[in-house]
Specification:
This protein is α+β, with helices and mostly antiparallel strands and 219 residues long. It is built from 3 helices and 13 strands. It has a single domain, classed as Jelly Rolls. The longest helix is centred in the first third of the chain and has 20 residues.
């Protein structure tokens, strides 16, 4: 192969790799554990641990805590519309109505937030939750915040003990379905395990969060 052609193909390969890297963002547990902390009530304990040979952020909630870890920076939804993550819980809450303020507690949740700088009233959020009682696939308005939608992506106690679950969602499609519009970007991501309203206790583990291009059908 002539040298100029080989060089051109090599440069093309680098361009493909660069395009792929721009269309994917990965947040390993080590990075998530360093996200900013925010408390609504009390303190959920977040700790970087090793589970099944992999790092994870373990969240321990007992009685009256609702605090989370969040990343506040722009995430281009035209480039990375798909969010994919791994999580597990060891238990869910009993005797709880998750559509009420008294029952707005979840063993695990991931927030995807769009908050315009000058139009705070147009803030929109998706809460992907591991529900205790609401069926998987259901959705409802958050009882505290009308501009936040709850989406149950897992539901009920883990079968055969705590096992890792992988969830893949299309952020653009979910914003369109639940808010009627698609923002150009996210402004924040967050994780939270809370138990302050219901007063229960649980533990959850959060693995890698990955943002990528493509569709939710692409695994």
């Amino acid at each position: 192969m002539p040298a100029p052609r080989a060089k051109a193909l090599a440069l093309l390969g680098l361009c493909v790799l660069s395009a792929h890297s721009l269309a994917e963002r990965v947040f390993p547990p080590e990075a998530i554990a360093e996200w900013e902390h925010h408390s609504f009530t009390g303190e959920t304990d977040y700790e970087l641990v090793t589970v099944d040979g992999r790092k994870a952020v373990r969240a321990t909630c007992s009685g009256d805590s609702a605090s989370g870890l969040y990343l506040e920076e722009p995430i281009d939804l035209s480039e990375t519309r798909i969010i994919e993550w791994r999580w597990r819980v060891d238990s869910v809450y009993s005797d709880i109505d998750e559509q009420t303020q008294e029952g707005d507690d979840f063993p695990a949740r991931i927030y995807a937030v769009h908050k315009p700088t000058w139009l705070r009233w147009k803030t929109r959020a998706l809460n992907y939750v591991w529900a205790s009682g609401e069926p998987e696939g259901s959705s409802w308005q958050n009882p505290f915040q009308s501009r936040a939608r709850m989406v149950a992506v897992n539901s009920g106690p883990p079968e055969d003990g705590a096992k890792w679950q992988t969830v893949t969602r299309d952020l653009r499609e979910d914003f369109r379905r639940h808010h009627g519009e698609v923002p150009e970007e996210l402004t924040a991501l967050a994780i939270m395990t809370d138990c302050d309203n219901h007063g229960g206790s649980t533990r959850a583990w959060y693995g890698r969060i990955r943002l990528r291009s493509g569709s939710a059908a692409d695994r």
